[in-house]
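[recover] target loaded
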């Protein structure tokens, strides 16, 4: 079919000729000139003497090659060959802790917001479970043990540290005393080489880093719990010890939800 010249506007030209170009030349990213133009632009920025542009580019290229070769043997400074990864979770050397709860490798992102938790948060975290089982019988001893253990543990460690201080380490005593009542809240952190953002922080971003999954067990069967990160808390203990907690909104993983096939 022969088309008149007035028919060939820009969009028709692309629709007719671009498929043929892709069939003959392959993917366009392997045959366009953008990488070469960017590299030539890098060379043009080397020019200092416009009267002798070629010689200026050659001298600058030799200097760059010498610096690149020398930087391979400079181990006490950061270079392109031994630069830290983007998601490094430890920004400074810290003392090695014996207890795993204080050995978390976390690097908070941005500035923190300090505030004192209100009574509603404490009731939700501590008292809700206790009020639920308050009138139950003794056959729920495990649940009662979970709710009453923190108070007993604090008094026990305090008495043991007074009678025999050698048996109680500083980390164990710090746990028994509890954290500082002031919490530090962050909107992002890097933990174990993984970047996490709260749902509010990534609201206007294209990438998603707020999803979390926790492997658990329910009635003897393994269950994966899925949620969305809403806040990151930093708890301060005695001796500059820190513990980081994630506050999440969890999805209902009932019988109607999806399950991974064992195959």
């Amino acid at each position: 079919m022969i088309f008149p010249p007035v028919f060939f506007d820009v969009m028709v030209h692309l629709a007719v000729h671009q498929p043929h170009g892709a069939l003959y030349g392959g993917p366009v990213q392997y045959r366009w000139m953008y990488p070469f133009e960017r590299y030539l632009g890098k060379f043009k920025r080397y020019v200092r003497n416009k009267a002798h542009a070629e010689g200026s580019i050659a001298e600058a290229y030799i200097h760059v090659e010498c610096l690149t070769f020398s930087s391979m043997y400079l181990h006490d400074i950061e270079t392109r060959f031994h630069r830290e990864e983007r998601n490094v979770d430890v920004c400074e050397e810290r003392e090695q802790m014996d207890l795993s709860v204080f050995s978390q490798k976390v690097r908070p992102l941005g500035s923190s917001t300090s505030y004192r938790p209100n009574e509603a948060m404490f009731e939700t975290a501590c008292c809700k479970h206790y009020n639920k089982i308050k009138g139950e019988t003794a056959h729920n001893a495990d649940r009662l043990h979970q709710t009453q253990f923190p108070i007993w543990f604090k008094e026990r460690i305090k008495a043991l540290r007074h009678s025999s201080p050698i048996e109680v380490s500083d980390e164990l005593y710090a746990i028994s005393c509890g954290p500082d009542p002031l919490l530090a809240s962050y909107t992002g952190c890097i933990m174990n080489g993984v970047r996490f953002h709260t749902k509010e922080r990534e609201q206007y971003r294209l990438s998603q880093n707020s999803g979390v999954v926790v492997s658990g067990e329910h009635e003897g069967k393994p269950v994966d719990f899925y949620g969305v990160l809403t806040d990151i808390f930093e708890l301060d203990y005695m001796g500059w010890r820190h513990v980081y907690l994630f506050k999440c909104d969890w999805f209902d993983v009932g019988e109607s939800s999806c399950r991974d096939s064992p195959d």
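[recover] notes: The first helix runs from residue 10 to 25.
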